[in-house]
Structure formats: structure tokens, C-alpha cells
Amino acid sequence: MFSTQEGARRRTALAALIREQGLQGVYLIGNRTTSHRSFGSFRYFTDDAVFYFLESVLALPDGELLSVVEHEMGRLGLVETTFITDAVIDADQLGGIWKILRARNITRGKLGVVKEVMPATWLLRFEKEMPELELVDVSEELYTLRRVRSQEEIESQQQGAKIAREGWDAVRSALKGGMSETEAVSLAEYAMQRLGAEESFLLITSGPVSQGKMQRPALHNTACMTRTMEKGDVVTLEIAPRYNGCWARLTRTACLEWEDPALSEKKAMAEEAMLAASRELRAGAPIGRVAETMLAATRKRGLTLDPLCGWIMGTDLCEEPITETNSTLLTEGMTVLLRAEERLSTAAWGDSWQVTPDGGVRLSGDSFGNL
Amino acid sequence: MDIVSELRSRYCGLERIMEERGLSAAVLVGNSAVGPAAYGAYRYFTDQRVFYHLQAMVARPGKQADICCESVQAAEGLRQRGFSLIHVCPEILRPVLQCLREQPIRRLGICPDMFPASWLDAVRDQWPAAELVDITEDIFALRCQRSEYELEVMRRGAQIADLGYEAVCDMARPGVRMADLHAYLDYTMRRAGAEEVFTLMSNGRFSLDHVGLPCIQPFSWPDDRVIRYGDCLGMEITPRFQGYWTQVVRTVCVGELNEDLAVAHRLQLEAINETAHILKPGLSLREMLAFMWDFSRKHGRFPKLPFGHILGLDLDEGGRTDLESPVKLRENTEVVLHPTMVTKEDMAFSIFWGDTFLVTAVGGRKVNKADTSLRVL
Questions:
Q1: What confidence score (pLDDT) does residue B199 get?
Q2: Which residues contact B368 (CB under 8 A, 6 or more apart)?
């Protein structure tokens, strides 16, 4: 949970945006989808974790955040534990939102929404019920506010990165032939949940090396496919816990009960490239330069990496890609996954770093650890 | 039957819907959220667990389905399920629109609860004269016809829920942190194959007359609750196995028997067992609820929602289960019964207890085997 001061800061910023954009308010809908930056705005501005279906909140120019609940107990819960300031009681969320709008005399003008999260049904109902209210998409404007990282967010992501490392350590120490991929990710998730991860995003792949080539599928969620790992496999895991609404992530590749000098060498090169790139993780620097540096460092050593060198993480898992063409500027406190995936082998390593005025600070420990 | 054959059979059902409704195409969207009714439609036709962002299926009469996803990671699982027309694009709407442009669109089938508003804008922009047809109910009717494959999956899911309950009973003791118990329960079910879990728990001193045992809630941090001697533990254990949810709801005593809980438990079992007798095809949720409501009142209790719901690919398949709900149960519909019967009208909840049943011609058949006795740990 964030502090009431943090809540006030975010509400104030949102209220200012509403006034600047000439909006009557912003209507946010939350669900549990893990995604890119459109989806985290509800969580960011309410600190309310949606665990089932959808939830709604209306942000007003005076800084109020009003929600809709089904009963009084729900209202008290929201007001006591989130940034939401009050709620009306209505079994129909949209019905409740309209009640609030009408009570505030908001029936015409512009209402900010995030259309990628809003279901079509709700848009159609809004158009019918409030035809003079124009729904305008404000996803990017909201994201611009979210790019400013507070100290509390910075600390949450630092903690998240530590939790990710614990998750990896739990798997690494137990990895052995005969273990299923499902078991491996379950172990990571178990370790992380006990430390406060509210949810996790986990991908895995495993398979043998044959004639110098990896014989394994792309990274996957074990609900889609799973296999029993064997001695001689190379295993790669993406481990991303969500702590206090903020994502952190690391990527690791390990050899299962064997050693591969070639892979060790690649890991060392990836580490060097990452360290070089981390020096570009300075507030005000363009994201593209980070990717350029990483790709150039490995190219020199004969290693070709995937051009996607990581992600900016925040309330959403993948807020902005770390690619050469991304000219957006880094902001202080941003948490970045720097990730090196070799195209040929698909072996990958990555760590969470934090942007500072003087370059990146690594959050998941000193190195990738043993292979 | 294997999943590839199962999916082919389901797709035939979708083609019939398109023909009956005169559709030019249908677009089904999946995401990683948990919800009612329409949320499971994409999963039903793809068996694809969406773990990031959105995915979409574009179905056209007489053609193989096109699947649009955002990464190669997602594409792998789809290939294994027999799909070959897979479009990988970070902006999924683009290949969706490209597929739709291949033919005239006069009537487009969608599940509007799952269709993003931004996509609706794009479709209306491109095909202003096209009629959008809500096919949620058509798909739901199809989904209600359970195959042998589905029954087997639900049976295995119930085993996972039972395993979860035993894990809690093994671990819960005075001094154990609730956060650790919650994590262990989830871990037990995941390593047994649950792709997702939806666990709610609480601890406290149950009383018939006041709220000593708080309402069950999802895991949230920070959580410094510790189980104490004399506590009751309420839990809703809900694993999702190969897409299908199943549920066991239990309350247990720690250290000593809670007499109030024993009284509530007996009544709860009676309510559930009597209701199970009427779980036959054709019964509506409204009628089921009215029966349970009546039972509560006859036994001097005030009935409150929730009383239970249909389970399947969605956690709450029939949508909100209330006294108005016209949704009818069919053969092999999976229903969890967890009545809320309180002693005072202003109380919102009571004991947490429930079991999952399959609807049959001779009444409900319990799916999970978790012990129905009141446990003292």
C-alpha cells in the first residue's frame, strides 16, 4: 500500500491534467490484465488491485476519486485502503457512474477515458445514456503523469527486484533433471508470494543443445505448454513479480547439471554489454541510446542480440520498449529491464536497473550469478 | 479425445452460429483478466491461456480461424493446438482489421463485453454500415454443452482443489503466518497443474451473532496476520485447470472446536445437500436461489448473496447469480453451492462452506471429494 501522501500527490496531478485538458473528469476502468501502459492507469491512480471482473472510478477536477460498489462494506474497504475518496452504492457500475456525473451536473463536454480497457458494451451504453458527453482517449496523457516516479515507487520497485532475485534463487537451487517446468515456475512463484509479490509473470523454456543448436520452443507460460526438464538442458526463465502494484523483472539462463563453456562466454559478454548500457541509464537520456550501446558492445564481440533490449517497467509490465528507435527520454527513478537475448541460441539474461542522474543502479544483485 | 479434435468440434459450433446469425465474420478477444460469462469465449475456441495483453480470433464462414497475438511466445502454444494462421504483431488490432478486409463485412459477430472500445471505434470507422451482432449468448449456449473432454478436465481440476484443502489442513497451526499459508496453498495447486488460482482466506473467531471471522479476501501485502489457537480459518479454494475453474469452500477450526461454527456447519451442509437434489437440467438459477432462500428462512436465518454460481471457463459463468437470474442449468453444468445464511439481518456474511456439483438428470453429483466434516486442526 502506498501512503496517503502518495495518493494525494497522484490525485493532485490527475486533477491538474483534467483542468489543463478542459475535461469534465476522467473515467478509469480497471481489470487484471497484464499488459502495456494503457492498462495500469486504474491501479496507479487508485492503488486498488482489481482481482475480479472490472472496477470503475471517476476522477474529478477537484481531486476527488469516486467509485461504485455493491454494498457499504465495499465502500468502507475502498476508502480505508486505497486512494479512492468515496463511492456510491449501485449493482450496475455504469449506473453508479452516471449517478455521480448527474449529481455533479456533468452531462456534456469531454470525459477522459482509456478506450483500450473500456469494453465496447460500456461505450455503447454511455453513448446512449449520455449522448452529449464526448469520450476522449487520454491513455498517453495519463502515462505521461505516471512517468514521474516518486520515492515510494522507487522503493517498491527496488523491493520487487529483490523479490525477483529470491524467486530465481529458489528455482536455481532446486533445478534438476526430472523436474517439470511447471514445478520450476511454481517454486519461483511460491518464494515470491511469501515475500509479498501480489502476482507474478513467469515464462520458461528448456531443451537440449544438439550440434551446437538449442532445441527448445520460445519462452512460454506453462499453461500453454510444459515439459519435464532433463540433465543437459538449457533453461531460461523470465521472472517478474509485482510488488505494491509495481513490476520488476529478471531473466536467467542456466545449464541443467552440466557446464557449457560457450554459454558461459555468452553470459559474460551479455554482462559486459549490460554494464556498458547501464551507464546510459541517466535521467534525460534517450532510451534509444541504451539499446544502441548494448547492441554495439555485443556486435563487436561477434554476438548478435535481439534488437529488443528490455522494457521500462512500472505499474504495467511493459511500458516502453528499449529499442534503438525509441527516442523517449528516461526519467529519474524509472525501473528498466536490461535484457540481452542472443538471437541464435535464444539464451537470455536480464536484470532490473534504476535510472539515476549518474547512470543505472542494478537492483537484483551484483551479477547474473553462476550458470 | 485430444484437444486439437475438441477444438475442431467447437469451431464447427462457431461456424453454425455464424451461419444461423448470417454473419460475415466473428471476432473473439481474450485477455488475462478473470470475469463472468464472455471472458471464456476466446479460451473456449483456442484453449489458449492469454498471459499478456490481448489475443484475438477472427473467424470467417468456411475458413480456418486466424489468430492474432502479440508475441512469438504466444504463437508457440497456438501451433500446438492446431492453428496455422497465426499473425504476430504488437498492435493486434492491425492484423484483425487486415483479416476482416479480405471480405465484405455486413454483419460482424462480437462479444461486446470483451471487445475493446478502441477496436469498436476502428471497426465503425472502416465499416460504418456493418451491423455488430452480440453473439455472447449463442457462444454461452454452445459452451453449456459439456463434452467428455471437458468433464475429464473438470474432474482433474476438482482433484487439485481437494489437494489444496489437504495442504491447508496439514499446514495451518497456531503461529503460522496467513501469508505463508496462502502461498503454500497456491503453490500446492500450481505444482499439481493449476494454471491459475483464485484464493480467498480469512482467520478469526467465528460467532453466530457477530462478525468475528472476517470476510474471506485475496492475498494482499503487507499481511502480518498470524493464526492463533481458537481461530477459525475460512477459505475459498479455486484452481483453474486447463481453463476450467472448480471450487471448494471450507472453514476449519484451529486447536479446538468452535461450537457456533459447528451449528452453522450442520445447517450449511443440510442446505447444500437439499439443494443438490434439485440440480437437474432445466432448473434456473433464479429457482435454485429461491429454494435456498426458502430453506434459510425456514431455519430462522436471513439469506444473503452470494449463494453460489456456475463454474466453467469463467469463474462465474452465468453472470451475477441472483433472484432474477433466468439462466437455466443443463446436463453437466458445474455449479458451486456456498450459501450465506446469517442470524441477524444486518450481518453481511457468515460461515464459508461450499462444494461443486455437476448437474444430472437425477440431481447434483458432487465433483470434489474434500471431506465435509468440520475439521479441528
A1: 94
A2: B158, B159, B161, B162, B246, B248, B355, B356
Q: Which pLDDT value is given to residue B339?
A: 93
Quote the radius of gyration of chain B (alpha carbons, Å): 22
- DSSP of B9-69, one letter per residue? HHHHHHHHHHHHTT-SEEEEEE-S---BGGGGHHHHHH-----SS-EEEEE-TTSPPEEEE
Q: Does A119 contact B117 at a Cβ distance shorter than 8 Å?
A: yes
How many angstroms separate the CA atoms of B291 and B273, rounded? 12
pTM recorded for the entire structure? 0.94
Distance CA A311, CA A291 (A): 10
Residue B2 neighbours by CB distance under 10 Å: 9
Compare all CA atoms of chain A with the CA of B317 and give the residue at the minimum distance. Answer: A53
Rounded to a whole number, what is the distance in Å from the CA of B217 to chain A's nearest CA? 10
Asked if B285 and B327 touch (Cβ cutoff 8 Å), the reply is: yes
Q: What φ, ψ does residue A132 adopt, rounded to 5°?
A: -95, 0
Q: Please, which pLDDT band fits residue A370 given cuts at 50, 70 and 90?
A: low
Query: Would you say B276 and B364 are in contact if contact means Cβ atoms under 8 Å apart?
Result: yes
Is there a contact between B75 and A218 if contact means CB atoms under 8 Å apart? Answer: yes
| Cell, residue B366 | 458432487
CA end-to-end span of chain B: 42
Question: What confidence tier does B336 reach under pLDDT thresholds 50, 70, 90?
Answer: very high
User: Is residue A49 scored above 80 in pLDDT?
Assistant: yes
Smallest CA–CA distance, residue B223 to chain A, in Å, is 8
Provide, as residue numbers in chain A, all residues whose Cβ is less than 8 Å from the Cβ of B53.
33-36
pLDDT, tens digit, for every residue of A319-358?
A: 999 999 999 999 999 999 999 999 888 899 999 999 999 9
Q: CB A33 to CB B33 under 8 A? A: yes
| Residue of A53, A139, A228 to mutate, interface with B, max B Cβ within 10 Å | A53
Whether A16 has its CB under 8 Å from any CB of chain B: the answer is no
Helices (H), B111-177: 117-126, 136-143, 148-171
CA atoms within 13 A on the CB side of A162: 9
Given a cut of 90, is residue A6 above it in pLDDT?
Answer: yes
First to last CA, chain A: 36
Instruction: Say what the pLDDT of residue A303 is.
Output: 87
Residue A218 to residue B72, Cβ atoms within 8 A:
yes
What is the phi/psi pair of residue A246, to 5°?
A: -110, 140
Task: Read off the pLDDT of each residue in B29-53 and give the average, rounded to a whole number.
Answer: 92
Residue A26's identity, in one-letter code, is V
Which residues of chain A does B122 touch, with a Cβ-Cβ cutoff of 8 Å?
A: none
Amino acid A302: pLDDT: 86
For A28, B266, B284, the CA distances from B302, given in Å and listed in that order, are 36, 16, 22
- A:182-241 residues touching chain B, CB 8 A cutoff: 182-183, 185-187, 189-190, 193-194, 196-198, 201, 203, 217-225
Q: How far is A169 from chain B (nearest CA, A)?
A: 16
pLDDT, averaged across chain B: 94
Q: What is the ipTM of this complex?
A: 0.94
Least Cα separation, residue A58 to chain B (angstroms): 18
List Cα–Cα distances, A179 to A175, A188, A215, in angstroms. 7, 13, 18
| Residue A128: φ, ψ to 5° | -80, -45
Question: Which cell is A118 given?
Answer: 473500456
Q: Please name which of B338, B339, B340, B336 lies closest in space to residue B359, comparing C-alpha atoms.
A: B336
Q: Which of residues 29-88 of A touch B (CB under 8 A)?
A: 31-36, 49-54, 71, 73
- Mean pLDDT along residues A221-235: 92
Nearest to A124 among B112, B190, B220 (CB): B112
A42-59 burial code (b ≥16 CB/10 A, e <16)? bbbbbbbbbbebbbbbbb
